[in-house]
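Protocol step 4 of 6: structure prediction from sequence.
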Amino acid sequence: MGAWTLNKAIAVFARCPADEMFERLRERAEQSPRCPVTRYLLACQCFERGRSALAVRHMMVAHHVEPDYQSAALLVFAGLNWVSRRGSALLPVLLDTWEEFRRPEFDRHRKERALLDAFAEPEPGLERVSPLARRLWRLPIRTLRAQIREAVLSRDGERYPLLTATA
């Protein structure tokens, strides 16, 4: 990847204003198509916009280039499932995929943690929930975080026992 290291890419995009992120990521992907940070974050932006097929493509590249991004692999399969379940929210599709693939671990490799840490948000109300809920919260997809927050904090939380089971 040359001078454009993973940490530099993470730092640059972590400081990027939210309203400029998508365009900057697209530009960077054209300049450096094998940058796993760019592809991972661009995929997250595509998930935000409901463009799951394109998100899957970017996540596949991110995981291929950087196998330590285990959440990218999970999101690839969740994205494929989401394409076939149009109209569904991402959270239930992601939970089903996580179960289907035998509860894969992610957020355990240093490189992946560095990426997720840079885009972490406070976990309001998630102190007494499952480790899975806290782990999924770390994925930099705002709509997913909103769905997690709603599922955990609402009275409808029993629909998601994987999220609400205490640690």
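Step 5 (inspection) to follow. The chain has one domain: 6-164.
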